[in-house]
Amino acid sequence: MQAVIQTESLSKNYRGFQAVNQVSLQVNRGEIYGFIGLNGAGKTTMIRMMLGMINPSEGACFINGKHVNLSNYPIWQDVGYIVETPYAYPELTVKENLNIFRRLYGILDPQSVTNILERLNLTRYANKKAKHLSLGNAQRLGIAKALLHHPQILIMDEPVNGLDPAGIVEIRELLQDLAHNHGVTIFISSHLLSEVARTATKIGIIHNGNLHQELSSKELPQLLNQRLHIQTKNLSSTVDLLLQHGYDPHVSQAGTIELHQQKAITSPEQVAQILVQGGHLLTKLSVEQEDLESYFLRIIQEKGDHLHESCIRSNSNRVI
Ligand SMILES: Nc1ncnc2c1ncn2[C@@H]1O[C@H](COP(=O)(O)OP(=O)(O)OP(=O)(O)O)[C@@H](O)[C@H]1O
């Protein structure tokens, strides 16, 4: 089966700085490929190369087997895209913006604009100037523009940026419907790791320009570590008691005791028994799976790569 999107050793070097390094990946029909990475990892650069907006220093991208470059015009008829800040004419209304793109796509029926306004919950903003939209609604306008011509391929940089939680769920369901029920192939980049874990069928992790790891959403649960989380009223004596019984307690900055050993995860009731018999009042005892964000930070740290301090700080409740 021919991949719908394929990159071969795609690289971008900005005057000696390697923003993207030899990234080869493929996305098949109906897949949602979630491309995740920290700020500055190389996501937008990769997407710009995939869309032919910038030339790669090395390598190539193919869409439906056709080499991507700006002159290969027919490719773009089947591609919807959104890159960083949603593109709009600020002085025109939402409806006028969409009508411009409708004509550019050669769509004759004006009803298509009404339909996409409804689908993206933008009908009440139809006559509002684009420059007066909130960030979330500007993002919706960008998505509406990308979907207007019913493309079979969507390439989207941070599509849920600026949306509120309800909007994120709405767009997730929309993308899943397009992929699963209409065979649309979707490539989305995001730094919202948990959101990607919920939406994507395949995940690629980019770090410092390198494709660090690829995994299917089915593989992910097996790779995520489990921990027994314990909260008690008397932290230090609980830790001592657990040490006496051969456990390896780690205390998080949030004051939760975590046990990583298999025996604690498979038999939490034995831990509970030890603590209760030792006179310790438990306020929480639960086996929890690390989320994609913690997994991501763990594998990068295991590889010994440097992480930006603010990134570690922002996840400090998960770093033990
Ligand atoms: N035109 C450019 N000239 C020089 N360096 C650039 C240029 N564009 C991007 N870079 C650098 O390349 C690296 C990757 O940037 P890119 O925008 O692709 O990251 P990103 O993963 O999309 O980050 P974010 O999530 O913050 O948008 C960054 O270090 C950035 O500073």
Topology:
Blueprint: E1 5-14, E2 17-27, E3 32-36, H1 43-50, E4 58-63, E5 66-67, E6 79-82, H2 94-104, H3 111-119, H4 135-147, E7 153-157, H5 165-182, E8 185-190, H6 193-199, E9 202-207, E10 210-216, H7 220-223, E11 226-232, H8 235-244, E12 250-251, E13 257-259, H9 262-266, H10 268-277, E14 282-289, H11 292-302, H12 309-314
Parallel strand pairs: 3-8, 3-9, 6-7, 7-8
Antiparallel strand pairs: 1-2, 1-4, 4-5, 9-10, 11-13, 11-14, 12-13
Helix pairs in contact: 2-3
Q: What would you note in describing this structure?
A:
Keywords: ATP-binding, Nucleotide-binding, Transport. GO terms for molecular function: ATP binding; ATP hydrolysis activity. This is ABC transporter ATP-binding protein. It comes from Ornithinibacillus hominis. This protein has helices at 43-50, 94-104, 111-119, 135-147, 165-182, 193-199, 220-223, 235-244, 262-266, 268-277, 292-302, 309-314; strands spanning 5-14, 17-27, 32-36, 58-63, 66-67, 79-82, 153-157, 185-190, 202-207, 210-216, 226-232, 250-251, 257-259, 282-289. It has 320 residues and is an alpha/beta fold. It has two domains: 5-221, Rossmann fold, CATH 3.40.50; 226-289, Alpha-Beta Plaits (2-Layer Sandwich), CATH 3.30.70. The strands form three sheets. It has a six-stranded mixed beta sheet with strand order 6-7-8-3-9-10, with helices on both faces. Helix 5 links the parallel strand 7 and strand 8. Residues 307-320 have low confidence and may be disordered. Adenosine-5'-triphosphate (ATP) is lined by residues 14, 17, 19, 37, 39-45, 191.
